[in-house]
Amino acid sequence: SAIFNFQSLLTVILLLICTCAYIRSLAPSLLDKNKTGLLGIFWKCARIGERKSPYVAVCCIVMAFSILFIQ
């Protein structure tokens, strides 16, 4: 389970941020109508992916390197 392994949890969070940002780039109205509540988490992840995209990209590269070569 990803909850008990810190690296798996980080991988899931990075994938969630990248997926939400990609979905928002394709269909902005899909995430923009749910800015609050439980589904607002996806909108917030999309905003993080858009605003911090260089940092998210570096984190994805580092995570991919660690999964492929360190584990």
UniProtKB/TrEMBL annotation:
Q: Quick check: keyword Transmembrane in the entry?
A: yes
Any idea where this protein resides?
Golgi apparatus membrane
Give me the segments passing through the membrane. 6-23, 53-70
Tell me which species this is from: Glareola pratincola (Collared pratincole)
Descriptive protein name: Protein kish
**CC annotations in GO:** Golgi membrane
Q: Among its keywords, does the record have Nucleotidyltransferase?
A: no
Q: What does this protein do?
A: Involved in the early part of the secretory pathway.
What InterPro entries does the entry give?
KISH_domain (IPR051523), Ksh1 (IPR009653)
Please, which domain of life does this record's source organism belong to?
A: Eukaryota
Question: Which keywords annotate this record?
Answer: Golgi apparatus, Membrane, Signal, Transmembrane, Transmembrane helix
> Its family?
Belongs to the KISH family.
